[in-house]
Amino acid sequence: MTDWRREFAEEARSERPDLARLCLLVCAVADPAVTQADLDAAEIELDRLAGLVPYGTHGADAWVAALAELLGRRAGFQGVPADYQRLESSLLHEVLRRRRGLPILLSVVWMEVARRAGAPVYGLGLPGHFVIGFGDPAELRLADPFAGGRAMTGTDAELLVAGATGEALDPSMLRPATPAAIVLRILNNIRAWASTRPERSDVALWAVELSLLLPSHPARLRYERAELLVRRGDFLTGAAEMEAYATIMDAVEPTAAEEIRRHARAARARLN
């Protein structure tokens, strides 16, 4: 049996992580029925779509128009509010099949097709909504794949951020997102989906565990994993994870560390 998690960890820590490959490995962990043939088929579909991009496309505005025509209008990739309620909206192979997904997954499709076609493309993780850009990031030639590839201006981006946070757009928000940052955000979305569905703690657990395999991740995810293990009945492992995290917290928040140890003792007590 293929060890998808090991492959995910190796890809995530490689010198130049492949975004599509990482997203497809998430799919393989999420669904035991997924095979290598399914992952290959998804890559082939991305290649096929890239081959349909008009040859000789040049310039950021032309790339925005060409990808919106191909992926938004002809192929029908776009999003609707109901997509936020479906786990499939965060799984690349399902997004390629359904032509529906969350903004970040649709952006992955756009970026991977555009990259294969030779476009200078990047992703922008704006608060509350992921979009893509073409050309020099300073020029802000943006598109919203969730809206079928609608072209966006810098003012549009400012309004989007203001609507999501009530604050002004910070220049740091316009830095192109790395593959690891994109995948972490995808896994965060999956964890958020599972958090409102207690019966799907299995999904929350594998999403946390994949996040922990990324080179950079919030340290608190270790405590979240411990809580999930306890919730799923693995009291000893969960308690041990809590105590390990408490040791890390001792240097920065000793009061919080003691509270975590209290939770660890309570988890062990559930075995008696």
Write down the overall mean pLDDT: 94
Query: What is the element string, with H for helices and E for strands?
Result: HHHHHHEEEEHHHHHH
Number of domains: 2
Strand order of the largest sheet: 1-2-3-4
Please count the beta strands (DSSP E, at least 2 residues each).
4
Largest sheet: 4 strands, antiparallel
Strand-residue fraction?
5-15%
- Cα Rg: 20 Å
Contiguous helical run count: 12
Portion of residues within helices: 55-70%
User: Structural class, please?
Assistant: alpha+beta
List low-pLDDT spans: none
Spatial separation of the terminal alpha carbons:
37 Å
Task: Label the overall shape.
Answer: globular
Protein name: Transglutaminase-like domain-containing protein
Family: Belongs to the UPF0162 family.
InterPro entries: SirB1_N
Domain Protein SirB1 N-terminal: 60-188
How would you describe this structure to a colleague?
The protein has 12 helices and 4 strands, in the order H-H-H-H-H-H-E-E-E-E-H-H-H-H-H-H. The chain has 272 residues and is of the alpha+beta class. It folds into 2 domains: 4-174, no CATH class; 218-269, no CATH class. The chain has a 4-stranded antiparallel sheet, with helices on both faces. A hairpin with a 5-residue loop joins strand 3 and strand 4 (150-152). Helix 1 packs antiparallel against helix 2. The longest helix is centred in the last third of the chain and has 17 residues, at 179-195. The chain is globular, with a radius of gyration of 20 Å. The model has no long low-confidence stretch (mean pLDDT 94). Residues 60-188 form the Protein SirB1 N-terminal domain. InterPro entries: SirB1_N. This is Transglutaminase-like domain-containing protein. Belongs to the UPF0162 family.
